[in-house]
């Protein structure tokens, strides 16, 4: 593997070409997004009126030079068919393809497996976006830094509170040059509060050799020697399904970034804008809030017009029926054909397709599943957590519970019933007050 | 006839309400608690009523003045300089209670029931002994002092058994008595208990009888029982077809037992009842759901609030989509913010609640 110090933009006088990859993972990995992922693959779950993945796609479409987008994951082929059709219709100039891994190869392994498709037409560089990230995706700024520094890789980073940092990949960078000096995934001790946002821009000539050498390292030697964190090791070991598969799993975060920091022109773009992961189902509520706020700041036409009973930002699907006496917002999304009765209050919540909220009910910090029904004067409530907070659980009476109340598909809450800090699996009927429970 | 009402202290068990008003003046069924007793006594022909209190009774004197005329009674205040228990106050008021030979009623001020004073007086006269105590049947006598009768007599009391472990009977002292003035000789002017000392002595002499109470009975000295007592009182009014209740034909009345002061305003699309009292000048907004609750004078319930098993204090405000339950008690001039949830919150006067109270707590 030869190190390439040659600036990538130099190719044959033409403008450099850029592609994009969205990593969507697969169904077996969606467990943390239960109970919502029981009925819909996480990337297709709608926040702020659009599937999670389409927020990534929208960011990509804002980089005019990108003409080719790959969705990489191990969901069934059919899962993204409609989404891709919609993308082609709205952006005919962009080719969108789904590349299915037949076994989990890891984020880097997947890229390597599909290198021929990605490298076709000899692109100079490509973005990699994790679909479970909610942020403003400042891809143009990453591109600018990439060119300015003649970089081989750019990572998007954000600052988090010190005590939260070790839950993420931590980046040590040179404050002046922005060069990444060191990278550790989920360190045991405090290393930095600048963390990996899960959005990258790689030069094709740098990343594939790096992955290749990681694969080689893996087969040559006991794996993960470069890894200082025993905690990360522990948590990693049981994750593999069997020995055969484990060997092939190569992840960007665990297996590639640390090496890039050592040997490549690797830079970090620190975003001051919002960022958070969409891991648990509850994190869809803050993600919804962040995307809605962004839409509001950019004066999106999609949002409901503010009024005495609409506290912005609020998204109401055109087919939803909302009684004028209902008070909605801030940070509320109402899905298609949902029916919101008189005197209803909804705040910091997502109401999904075909759900019905009867009169005088109150829904706060909650997700109301598809076709669920909430009775009159019922109260479905979670616990407010600061939007900068990255955890979606709270401790109540010494027990860790979900801060967001989530009702799965076709659940029913009786008249006047109160549901607080609960997760309710699909097709359940709640006739009595419940709190701090998972309802099977 | 004469009566003594044992008022005692300010009523700390009924705080935070009694931080604002002495307990006898707290409205039960939209009238001061003590008025229920004064009215029943007046109807039974009582002319002289002594209120035994151990605090300065100015507030009460002022509040009750007008009722003296209305009911044709003379109310005197017997102020204990130190707490004298339940018997001591009788001795202190000996001058009035002992002025003639007619028997006197003695009442605990916390007791709410259909006061049977006329029948009680007749029964007392008929047996001719020194005293009669009203007894009521309870489901769990083990929590109270139980009255046991002489085997050969239906009403003469044989003994009292305090918190019986084994079943000895289910009739308990209801806190209402009729006594001849002669018993004043049995009491010394010191802190002493009528239940523990005076009555056992009378029982020993075969001088004490019991009288069975018909209908409901409740000691409403604390919020939980105040609410239960309100339910019993309203049910009894319903049974009697009382005009004090709001007719069930009103569209917002649900399940009956609803008492609304004529000056209160009720919004549209409300669902109220069962067991709700709404005091004077209360404003209830649209789409409000009320059940098993007491809204005291001047309180305001904003739109879409949901209230159950709660006492809303005078001039308090409950926000839109707020939810109060599980014996929440709001003192005077409390504000509950919009969308707030209160589970068993006991809120002191003039407080503003801006965050959920999720487990029962006292908000200072």
TrEMBL record, chain A:
Reaction catalysis annotation: alpha-D-mannose 1-phosphate + GTP + H(+) = GDP-alpha-D-mannose + diphosphate
Domain (Nucleotidyl transferase) ranges: 19-216
Pathway: Nucleotide-sugar biosynthesis; GDP-alpha-D-mannose biosynthesis; GDP-alpha-D-mannose from alpha-D-mannose 1-phosphate (GTP route): step 1/1
Gene3D superfamilies named among the record's database cross-references: Hexapeptide repeat proteins, Spore Coat Polysaccharide Biosynthesis Protein SpsA, Chain A
EC identifiers of the protein: 2.7.7.13
Family matches, as InterPro entries: GMPPB_C (IPR056729), Hexapep_transf_CS (IPR018357), Mannose-1P_guanyltransferase (IPR050486), NTP_transferase_dom (IPR005835), Nucleotide-diphossugar_trans (IPR029044), Trimer_LpxA-like_sf (IPR011004)
Keywords tagged on the record: Transferase
Domain Mannose-1-phosphate guanyltransferase C-terminal intervals: 311-438
Functional note: Involved in cell wall synthesis where it is required for glycosylation. Involved in cell cycle progression through cell-size checkpoint.
Protein name: Mannose-1-phosphate guanyltransferase
Provenance organism: Zasmidium cellare
From TrEMBL, chain B:
Domain of life, per lineage: Eukaryota
Entry-linked Pfam families: GMPPB_C (PF25087), NTP_transferase (PF00483)
Gene3D superfamilies noted in UniProt: Hexapeptide repeat proteins (2.160.10.10), Spore Coat Polysaccharide Biosynthesis Protein SpsA, Chain A (3.90.550.10)
InterPro entries (UniProt xref): GMPPB_C (IPR056729), GMPPB_N (IPR045233), Hexapep_transf_CS (IPR018357), Mannose-1P_guanyltransferase (IPR050486), NTP_transferase_dom (IPR005835), Nucleotide-diphossugar_trans (IPR029044)
Domain Nucleotidyl transferase residue range list: 2-233
Keywords: Cell cycle, GTP-binding, Nucleotide-binding, Transferase
SUPFAM superfamilies for this protein: Nucleotide-diphospho-sugar transferases (SSF53448)
Pathway per the UniProt entry: Nucleotide-sugar biosynthesis; GDP-alpha-D-mannose biosynthesis; GDP-alpha-D-mannose from alpha-D-mannose 1-phosphate (GTP route): step 1/1
Catalytic activity, EC: 2.7.7.13
Catalyzed chemical reaction(s): alpha-D-mannose 1-phosphate + GTP + H(+) = GDP-alpha-D-mannose + diphosphate
Claim: Iron-sulfur is one of the keywords in the record: no
Group of enzyme by EC: transferase
Domain Mannose-1-phosphate guanyltransferase C-terminal: 256-363
Similarity annotation: Belongs to the transferase hexapeptide repeat family.
Functional description taken from the UniProt entry: Involved in cell wall synthesis where it is required for glycosylation. Involved in cell cycle progression through cell-size checkpoint.
Record protein name field: Mannose-1-phosphate guanyltransferase
